[in-house]
Amino acid sequence: MDFAILPTARPLRLDNVTVPGFLTGAPTDTVRTTLTIDTHGRLSDAPAPVAVEMRGAMVWPAFVDMHTHLDKGHIWPRSPNPDGSFAGALDTVGADRAAHWSAEDVRTRADFSLRCAYAHGTRAIRTHLDSIPPQDSITWPVFEALRADWTGRIELQGVCLVTADDVDPDGPFRATADRVARAGGALGMVTLPLPDMADRLRAFLRMAEARGLAADFHVDETADPAAATLRQIAEVVLETGFTAPVTVGHCCSLATQPEAEALATLDLVARAGLHVVSLPMCNLYLQDRHAARTPRWRGVTLVHEMKARGIPVAFASDNTRDPFFAYGDMDMLEVMREATRIAHLDHSDPDWGAAFTTTPARACGFDAPSLAPGAPADLVICRARTVNELLSRPQSDRIVLRAGRQIPRALPDHAELDPLMRTE
Fold it and tell me: Which residue ranges does the record assign to the Amidohydrolase domain (predicted)?
């Protein structure tokens, strides 16, 4: 068999494939099995007259990327981070947004990212969208149009992105929350070490509850051990009895706090039922960056301690070629490879693959990726036969199936964005 091309006949049986063990209930990294794709593009246990010997090729369900910033993506060529710092990223993105973020600009860059994600094998994305007026009135209509255009290829969910000091129930944020509700998104906020942070969290959750929205926070994205808004979120969720899903992202300062303090916070997070998403590539890039000094820590949060407490942990792309992260291509296999290395997911539980598939789907309310009979044959097939082989190469020759049909995997050329990069 030419690995890059599968027969077009359906039903089709894929013999001798390797699948993640956690999807079968096995206590091992992988399992060898057979998968059959029926004429309707779904997995089946019925007989198939055409079979292909797959020689151990690894099959994953299409990925879920639950924390991205499609509106920021690919601005690096015109607005690079001057020093690689978090402050440099904030200032640079703010200036670029003010100067360039028209509807055409946002749409073109976001669509480019979506084409990359689709070719790499992602089927669902949650994106944060900068929503301080007047940008919200530009970006949200673009997002809704993109979501309609991408129906059937990538399921899209939007989250407003504002800072805690913008959350005033009687101010402009009320209109933003209404806009998010109309778009069926989630209410998002960057927490800050403000004296009245707990009150702002209560007001924020009341606004989310009134609109039936989930909450998604950027939390403690700093090396400062005094940054402890994660604990405040857990306390306020427990106090208010807020029942919609709550996601917390980054949580970097946990890794710099005294052990007892960090673990006590995680106990509260577990009790509150929060979902955590770690963004290891972006945090490795930004955190502990100082000129002419080697970083002393990786920026990643305490994912093993979280998982040991039953806290759902996912990993995601975060930023792509912008001042918060200079690299990336919306490729969840890259995220898996780098997360495994950065956070030492190897020599650990065999079910970390859920953090790139089923766990983020559950956090966002997307349909859970599955390899069970009846599930859509949305598959990523790699020549690798083991997890070690999978994570040792980029798997650039992978096969991606959507509804049982092989899709073209040509990636868009970065040169397409050149007209947007002219700043004069």
Answer: 195-404
Contact call for residues 158 and 131 (beta carbons, < 8 A): no
CA pair distance 198, 410, nearest whole angstrom: 48
Residue 308 corresponds to which tokens in the numbers above? Answer: 């040991």
Active-site annotation holds for 221: yes
Helix (H) or strand (E) holding 231: helix 229-240
Selected from 2.40.320.10, 3.20.20.100, 2.30.40.10, 1.10.10.10, the CATH number assigned to the domain covering 12-62+370-406 reads 2.30.40.10
Angle, helix 259-272 to helix 229-240, in steps of 10 degrees = 30
Would you say domain 63-364 falls under CATH 3.20.130.10? no
**Catalytic: which of 53, 144, 221, 305?**
221
pLDDT in tens, 20-55: 999 999 999 999 999 999 999 999 999 999 999 999
Rounded distance between C-alpha atoms, residue 212 and residue 131, angstroms: 19
Question: What pLDDT digit, counting tens, does each position of 298-312 carry?
Answer: 999 999 999 999 999
402 has which bridge partners? 405
**In this structure, what token pair is assigned to residue 291?**
């000129």
Distance from C-alpha of 338 to C-alpha of 353, rounded to nearest angstrom: 13
For residues 422 and 424, what is the distance between their CA atoms, to the nearest angstrom? 6
pLDDT, tens digit (0-9, with 9 covering 90-100), for 327-374: 999 999 999 999 999 999 999 999 999 999 999 999 999 999 999 999
Mean of the per-residue pLDDT values for the chain?
Answer: 97
C-alpha distances (whole Å) from 279 to each of 20, 70, 251 are 22, 15, 9
Q: Tell me the CA end-to-end span of the chain in Å, nearest whole number.
A: 52
